[in-house]
Write a structure and sequence with these properties.
mainly alpha; Serine Threonine Protein Phosphatase 5, Tetratricopeptide repeat
Length: about 90
Amino acid sequence: MITTYHLRQLAGEGDSDAQFRLAYRLAFGRRRVSSAWSRAARWWALAAAQGHPRAQFYLGTCYDQGRGVRKNLVKAMRLYRSAGDQGHVEGQ
């Protein structure tokens, strides 16, 4: 299992999978804090910008539900569509 410290290092270097996994850990991990969703959304946004389909989907859910970002259904739909176009089943 990769440590959060190591994930942060890789994410900071631009690794989109590490950015996705770090965001997931922040949002759904055992030690959630109030700022976790906004930090998760920032990491997912970085990974989504690199074309990571799962990050696009999860960032879309953030915009869909207003978690960590201001609710924006137009952005949510764009992100869902982008993920779906890459084969992400939930995004479809």
